[in-house]
Amino acid sequence: MAELYITIGRQFGSGGREIGKKVAQALNIPYYDKEILAVAAQESGLSHEFLKSYDEKPTNSFLYSLVMGQQRLSPGMAGNTVEQLAANAQREAVLSVAAKGSCVIVGRCADYILRDKPGLVRVFVCAGHDARLQRVVRRDGVGEKEAEEKLRKMDKTRASYYSFHTDRKWGAAESYDLCVSSSLHGVDAAVRVILEYCKGE
To answer: How far apart are CA 31 and CA 22, in angstroms?
Structure first.
């Protein structure tokens, strides 16, 4: 069987992580989400806590952004800020786990980092606003007002991180091979759609 690399971009509260885990289990291949941080820490020598503090967060240096422009996650890119050090370590970790064979990777610009790799399937998971809101309320045990703020903040953070490190727009259909809504027929149906798509790869 040819190697298969499934990357999962996701709106906050869409169930992207759960979907990614179920896809990996169904295909019996490794799943990486926060696990990428452990790999990055081990291979880069940077602390896990340091990497966690900058996980999928855009650079805080506005002046650096103005001077350097949008830095891409590409080979040989110097880590001129602590944010770039963290991003570069995660990039190398994504390449490292993909080098070991088929896997599912959630977030971390993996779709962009692995863009030239044969067998890549780029998935984006979205959901209706109300479905996302209620998922966050249930999952995080917070009120609707706090959940609403989390949705707004996390989507903005992920979009900023993605656009800063790639030449693509986060969530734009043309950046992915498959866009799936988990709120139409549920998480398991979204998993089935992804698995069916992968059969054709």
So the answer is: 9
